[in-house]
Design a protein that fits this description.
Elements: E1 6-8, H1 10-20, H2 32-42, E2 45-46, H3 56-65, H4 70-79, E3 83-87, E4 91-95, H5 99-108, H6 115-126, H7 128-141, H8 167-177, E5 181-187, E6 190-195, H9 196-199, H10 211-226, E7 228-230, H11 231-236, H12 246-255, E8 259-266, E9 269-270, E10 275-278, H13 282-289, E11 297-299, H14 310-317, E12 339-343, E13 346-356, E14 361-369, H15 377-394, E15 398-401, H16 410-413
Length: 414
Amino acid sequence: MPHPVRTITPQIARRLAITRQRLAGQETPATPDGILNLIRDLNCVQIDPINAVARTQYLVVWSRLGQYDTEDFHRLLWKDRSLFEYWAHAASIVPTEDYPIHADMMRRYGTSESEWGQRTRKWIAENQELYHHILTEIKENGPLPSQAFTDTTEVGWHSTGWTSGRNVNQMLDYLWSQGKIMVSGRKGLQRLWDLSERHLPEWTPREELEREVVVYRAAQKSLRALGVGTAMHIKRHYIRNRYHNLPVVMKKLEADRRIQRIKVAEADNVWPGVWYIHTDDLPLLDSLEAGDWQPRTTLLSPFDNLICDRDRTELMFDFLFRIEIYVPKAKRQYGYYVLPILHGDQIIGRIDPKMDRKTGRLIIQAVYAEPGAPGNKTTARSVSKTIQNLAAFLGADDIIYTGDIPTGWKTALG
């Protein structure tokens, strides 16, 4: 007999998602082990070079652990090599222990019969000299930055995107995606490339998993990081769009009682689709429904794992969020690098910050409250405190408010 489908409220669904994202409850000690365990739970942390406030990989960790030493993060990446850079839902930092999941993409990269796959293989075949030049230079002299390689392409790479004509970078990206080379360090934004066989630690798990096993494992990781979600949410999270034959795998996961269906509803508000929870998270769900909830107030990177699926964010939090980095300044609604404000189980607003490193000031260019956001002093003080914590993390000597502040928050923030 199938289990009756359990119904939970939207509030409990949000709290489960937030808790599994490590954004509620007691903060984990901000030690190297704490950082590593956090990224194990998240599965991946997106990388982005924009530094208007701080790079997103640092902000995502700060939102969850508070003040920490970024050198501990670097040590996990470049010395301990417990983490490495690879493609998850975007270019990301992932745990080395999950290498077999990512190795599936490495083995399959560029092998599809799509137009892109065929064009890529043709370009690689026409530029074997550059291919071998890069691998030889890295083997003999690596780790090396991209400037160390001579462009020996016979046929240039053409695309409609930013990589057109960037032949060395395109070849490096191809070799990285295939798992032949890895980022073994950074100097600022400059990546240092080395052979994967030389960079990966000896303890790296290297078993070749069948594709169904990869999806079986990855779907569980995705769902646990989400807290609750539909098959589409799973597909868009973690190894985005690489869940081959996901419907069949979901049925197997249900049959194996690794996941179970759940309904999210309250009165006439029923969330659409078939929702799932991982069975390992049922005790957490019981605890949340019993009232065990420790809310926090924090700021989220625009690329934060909690909100990287914009449609899911709008459904769960009634919060419409779009990044305006590439929107002309005059047409921006909120700002260049806006950080949403997570307050308990709601996203109650956003701030438009900029770190002025020359003067050591964190400039808050505007603060926006969502419709219905609490305008009381307690909330305002919580928002103010998290902005102060961000300033401390950035090493800012002062916080300057230069733009609009919601009326109820002015005393605490102004």
